[in-house]
Amino acid sequence: MKGVLDGRDYPVIGIPIYKSEEWAELRQKQEKLLGSDQTDQQDLRRYFQLFLKLYEVEEPSLKVRPDDPQLAPPSFYSETFVPGWVESAREVIEQDKLIEESSKDEGRGEIDEAKLMRIIEWLSKTIS
What is the four-CA torsion angle of 45, 50, 53, 55, rounded to 10 degrees? Predict the structure, then answer.
């Protein structure tokens, strides 16, 4: 995925889900014959813990059952993404107000200098 972790490698894993113990055993024997045994759970857990620590990524929390209590979003989202979303929403609201004001002025033939300055100021903030 382009852009994930600033272009650095990230873990891609598959979680084997088998229909029965026989299917799991067949897969294990296949991997053993091919020389590619699966990593055990402890190795995988340690890998992810170290990865999260080194890349400074918050450990994810997942609900296990639908009736489990609601989880708070990671602080990274509330500290990084939410302020950006709020600012984007504010810009859209401001843009809508400017469009509404300018549509009211149509037909009058004059442009209110204060309104024009607000539009220019808004555009300069949006572009930069």
Answer: -110
